[in-house]
Design a protein that fits this description.
Blueprint lengths: L1 H19 L7 E6 H4 L4 E8 L4 E10 L8 E14 L6 E16 L6 E2 L2 E2 L7 E18 L4 E19 L7 E23 L1
Antiparallel strand pairs: 1-2, 1-10, 2-3, 3-4, 4-5, 5-8, 6-7, 8-9, 9-10
């Protein structure tokens, strides 16, 4: 029930911003992150011009389905970002400062990664369920493809505070750790956005 309310709130927010924003030429953009699409995560982003060189973007991401081989990759998160464009909005180089928050239920992802104090290999045999909040900075570049289309590349790094429960295996319900905390430092944003400009 709580998730339904959250999804409705996010949808209402997107719709209200879309219909109340100034829609002059290149004032509003809608985008989809192809990198997230590749992980079967549904996503939608909207960006609004604030000045000639500042914009505000908000994106939402959702993966709510079962994956093959009992792998868990369920999550939702929202990521607002203020952007400063070096030349002109929606064109060329930009810097961003973003926040993020969401929930996850992940596990059964075979890997060997251990990066900056986070042992991702624990995802191979266990399932983690919890929430996170944090922020970071990003650099990106927008390629103009046509009058209304851009391709945007962005990479961000930052911090996330995480609270989670760990379960013994991906498919079972035996909890082995409860209300644990983790401080993550590393990549917090990776985007290959296909952008439509109004």
């Amino acid at each position: 029930m709580k998730r339904k309310k959250l999804y409705c709130c996010l949808l209402t927010l997107f719709a209200s911003i879309l219909f109340t924003a100034n829609t002059d030429a290149q004032e509003v953009a809608i985008k989809s992150n192809i990198a997230y699409d590749a992980t079967a995560s549904v996503n939608l982003g909207m960006e609004f011009a604030l000045t000639q060189q500042w914009t505000f973007e908000v994106s939402g991401n959702l993966n709510a389905w079962n994956m093959p081989n009992d792998m868990k990759w369920k999550h939702w998160f929202a990521q607002p970002e203020f952007r400063y464009w070096f030349c002109e909005k929606y064109s060329g180089h930009f810097l961003g400062i973003h926040a993020h928050s969401g929930q996850f239920n992940v596990g059964g992802i075979p890997n060997n990664l251990n990066f900056l104090g986070t042992d991702f290999s624990r995802l191979s045999d266990s399932r983690f369920q919890g929430w996170f909040v944090g922020g970071g900075i990003a650099y990106g570049y927008a390629f103009i493809l046509g009058k209304h289309f851009n391709l945007e590349l962005e990479l961000g790094i930052g911090y996330s505070y995480t609270r989670y429960d760990r379960f013994e295996c991906v498919g079972c319900g035996r909890k082995v750790e409860e209300n644990m905390e983790h401080h993550y430092v590393g990549p917090t944003k990776a985007a290959v956005n296909l952008v439509y400009l109004f």
